Amino acid sequence: MIGLAFRSLRKRTGAFVASFLSMFLGATILMAFASMLDTAGGDHVNGTAEETLVTMASVVGGWGMLLVVFAVTSTLTLSVRQRAAEMALLKSVGATPAQLGRMIVGEAAGLAVVAALLAIPPAVLVGRGLLGMLHGTDQVPANVSYSFGPIAVAMGLGITFVSATAAALITARRATRVRVAESLMAAATDTVKMSKKRIVFAGLFLLLALDLAVVTATVMRDKGTDAMATAGQADILAAIGLALLAPAIMRRVTSLLAGPLRALGGVTGDLAITTMRRRTGAMAAAVTPIILFTGTAVGTLFLQATENAAMDAAGLIKDNEQKNIETLNLVVIGMVVLFTAIMLVNTLVAATAHRRREFGQTRLAGATPGQVLAAVALESVVLTVTGVVCGTVASAFTIVPFGIARMDSATPDGSVWTYLAVVALAAVLTGATAYSATRRAVRTPAIEAVQA
To answer: Which long-range contacts (CB under 8 A, 24 or more apart) does 253-262 make?
Structure first.
């Protein structure tokens, strides 16, 4: 089955692109920040510079690791779920659950190793850029040279490999336990039933976020910049918690919008609602990066805006520590924007390419290519609005308690244009990606798409 896994990788390159890119970008981020630990152990590194480098690696790299693991798990799950019919066929010819599990894990392990090795050169470039930024803000002396060593390589390879294989094991266990008839039904509908473990983990992340929010608004009140340590983590935890609940959220949203969309959208609205009801899993996977992007970006941007307003109100000038915190926040924003943007594009492209046969069947049933494109555009609007709303709720776990702690106000500081810019970027990424991927898919003649 390991041999079959590698043959599957060679023959089904397109199906694994999303997972590969998530691992590649994730390994790049992990190694780039881990290289700050290698740099901290070099020559000419004093106490303050060493502390800055270690903080950069541990805080930003730690949250990056959490996002990477979550993204890899999400894309691998989507990839395996899209192959439900293939899994059913293998079972019908005698493949055992253990053999299928080894195949799935073998595919993930092979992807992880290749992705991590290829990520080394860009990780070196990103790491140099991070150190250059710290040099430019005088947080690390200019004579501290960059080092990319064993810590970076070990963390990049190790975490990418472990997260990929662990995600594959979880996904394989769920996929191989399903009977052949159920696998074929899953291939046709792609509906997702949330497991008890998923619900428990979602509740755990949300409770942790709520705990940090309460601590920020009470214990950390009037503690100055220290309140950022607890507030800054709450939005990420809340966003992950809501993302885990995405299947249930999308089912509820689809149910609520079914009537209005059919009434206002006519054939297009009916087509979009029917598709969303049948493709809960794909819709949940697509809305996940929007939630993560909006929640973390809005939370961090308004967190920093509130901190700046508090310092201006007190007539204070930022010291090196405060500059370091601001730099960390900006790096977090940049990392999240880049990673979730690519994750969003990957997921939408993979999900849309998999629907080529569905689009062909819809066109054979009488729908025009224009109606298919319009239905996908309507789906994108629903995804964007749902993701932005959930992400905004997640960001409130950070900005509301931090505003109370620093400014005695639950209303965050910051421009409404900042929020609208985040929303606009999420909408453009979602809409443009879905539209372009669907347009490529409908170029294939309907008969060829159905027979593919």
So the answer is: 253/382, 253/386, 254/280, 254/283, 254/382, 257/382, 261/378
Residues 303, 232: contact at Cβ < 8 Å? yes
Geometric angle at alpha carbon 78, from 349 and 385, rounded to 5°: 60
Q: What pLDDT sits at residue 387?
A: 94
> What are the backbone dihedrals phi and psi of residue 409, each rounded to the nearest 5 degrees, phi first?
-145, 135
pLDDT value at residue 186: 53
**Average per-residue pLDDT in the chain?**
81
- Distance (Å, rounded) from C-alpha 399 to C-alpha 1? 50
DSSP string of 364-384?
HTT--HHHHHHHHHHHHHHHH
pTM, two decimal places: 0.80
Using the structure block, give the residue that is written with the tokens 């992340």: 205
Among residues 161, 189, 217, which one ends one of the domains? 189
The reply to whether 158 and 216 lie within a common domain is no
- CA distance readout (Å), 191 to 18, 294, 429: 20, 25, 25
State which of 189, 211, 228 marks the end of a domain: 189
Residue 21 sits in which domain range? 1-189
Residues 175 and 195 in one domain: no
Question: 239, 291 in Cβ contact below 8 A?
Answer: yes
Looking at residues 359-371, what average pLDDT do you find?
Answer: 83
Both 279 and 247 in one domain: the answer is yes
* 154 shares a domain with 69: yes
- Chain position carrying tokens 């347009």: 439
